[in-house]
Design a protein that fits this description.
five-stranded mixed sheet; seven-stranded mixed sheet; alpha/beta; 16 helices
Length: 495
């Protein structure tokens, strides 16, 4: 089944029908229709998968998809247009440009925590760039995966964009096939396996992974506002967000205030019993429930509630005075548990972050511009948001992605189009003016080399049709030099 899906997509791609921009625009329009027309069905599936609120589904998934689809449709002709490149004097009369070309047949492996956004956002770029795509949604969000399998062929070219369901065996079988790009969203552990499988075919990969995203709260900030924003980002989707604040770093002098403010905000957001709140989600399955509960062993919670394995419910939990060496600080939590690690100085914060794997996101709360500047310049992460959480993700003008252990390659908006495109270098030369090439042909001499160096190292403007003043002046100067050179060459040519 997996092999046939890839072969079907390859055959459809080789037919050439995904190349014309009109086909791509039509498919993007159809995908937009799916997202907008089937919102109720999508929300119902997510309610079954993860107890997602009907209001959170548009907020966290569908609005972002709509924005990316609108952007792709309005900008595709510009994205796909040839990009002129700078010339030198030797290529003055040539056409020199880069052309975005589709990579071919790509594999998109989605994630279960945001099964629509993290599967369809890459697909938007793959379609816009003119690729065929095999779509593999996560089997853990089974209701969403089944609905995607049902809906996508109703709206899109089903040969060009087949959906493959299944678990680990089906994914492994897919990874044995040859693709032109693999886009994977998930854990670092599985990401390494994906990269290893892709390497057998020298297939490039985009890995959107995760990690422990730190959140530093400076004592010189509005702690109430900071904790309100952190609480929203940490406990949305029951903590199952790759860029959720994984832990807090703060000085011990403000730790009690931080705990109090988060506790107050939790009551405001979810009431006295979050289990009864329509806005509070559930852990995806019993395996992940047990994993998160295991991380709590040995800790006494400063803020906690009752947990229910049968319902995969874990109450919002705050841990204070957590040791950097504890188990919960060794792996991504991916659940509604927020440890607080106390530090003594900004230097210690920076060392703490840099001693660990590079995170997918970094959050800094401070009024001090010097603190912010040091955190930005002396640490490394996939992305940064200062005095808020998540918001860099919502900007499709910014590339979203990790670095080091948190992933490789960025996407969103035009960055997704670029991710699924090959920038082909093109130079078109005429067969005339052969005299200009004499300086590169043997037999060589010092005079030819000197002229060649001048012509090859003098760069000109890359404007369309040399429209700027500098280009006009340079063109006139270059024409004069070319004429002079031709005269010299003609004198050197034996009778």
């Amino acid at each position: 089944m997996e092999k046939q899906a890839v072969e079907c997509a390859r055959k459809a791609y080789m037919s050439g029908r995904s190349r014309p921009l009109q086909f791509r625009l039509q498919q993007l329009h159809q995908l937009y229709r799916l997202v907008t027309e089937k919102e109720a069905e999508i929300s119902a599936a997510l309610k079954k998968d993860i107890n997602r609120s009907q209001y959170d589904t548009p907020l966290f998934e569908l609005i972002g998809l709509e924005n990316d689809l609108k952007l792709a449709q309005s900008s595709l002709s510009d994205w796909a247009a040839p990009r002129p490149a700078k010339k030198n004097l030797l290529t003055l009369s040539d056409q020199v440009y880069t052309q975005a070309e589709p990579l071919g047949v790509v594999l998109i492996i989605g994630a279960w925590n945001y099964p629509w956004a993290l599967t369809l956002q890459p697909l938007i770029g793959a379609i816009a760039a003119g690729n065929a795509a095999v779509v593999k949604p996560s089997e853990l969000s089974k209701h969403s995966a089944g609905l995607l399998k049902e809906l996508l062929p109703q709206y899109l070219d089903q040969e060009m964009y087949p959906v493959v369901l299944g678990g680990v065996p089906e994914t492994q079988e897919l990874l044995q096939q040859r693709f032109d790009h693999v886009f994977y969203t998930g854990s670092s552990t599985v990401g390494k396996l994906v990269m290893e499988a892709a390497a057998r075919h020298l297939t490039p990969v985009t890995l959107e992974l995760g990690g422990k995203s730190p959140c530093y709260i400076d004592k010189d900030c509005d702690i109430s506002v900071a904790c309100r924003r952190i609480t929203w980002g940490k406990f949305a989707n029951c903590g199952q967000t790759c860029i959720a604040p994984d832990y807090i770093l703060c000085e011990s002098s403000i730790q009690d205030r931080v705990v109090q403010e988060i506790q107050r905000t939790l009551r405001e957001f979810y009431g006295e019993d979050p289990k009864c709140s329509l806005d509070y989600g559930r852990i995806i399955n019993h395996h992940h429930f047990d994993r998160v509960m295991g991380l709590l062993e040995g800790h006494t919670a400063a803020v906690e509630g009752k947990n229910d394995r049968e319902e995969c419910y874990i109450a919002p939990t705050i841990l204070r005075d957590v040791s950097p060496h504890s188990r919960i600080m060794q792996e991504e939590i991916f659940g509604p548990v927020l440890p607080i690690v106390t530090i003594n100085s900004l230097d210690e914060v920076i060392r703490f972050i840099n001693d660990r794997e590079k995170p997918l996101a970094l959050y800094v709360f401070s009024k001090d511009k010097k603190v912010i500047k040091r955190m930005l310049s002396e640490t490394s992460s996939g992305g940064v948001t200062v005095n808020d959480v998540f918001m860099h993700y919502t900007m499709n003008s910014l590339p979203f992605g990790g670095v080091g252990n948190s992933g490789m390659g960025g996407y969103h908006g035009k960055h997704t189009f670029d991710r699924f495109s090959h920038q082909r270098s093109c130079l078109i030369k005429s067969l005339g003016m052969e005299g200009m090439n004499q300086i590169r042909y043997p037999p060589q001499n010092a005079a030819h080399l000197k002229r060649a160096k001048f012509f090859l190292t003098t760069r000109l403007c890359s404007c369309h049709r040399f429209s700027c003043v500098w280009a006009v002046v340079a063109t006139m100067a270059a024409l004069g030099l070319m004429i002079a050179l031709l005269v010299v060459l003609l004198k050197e040519t034996p009778e």
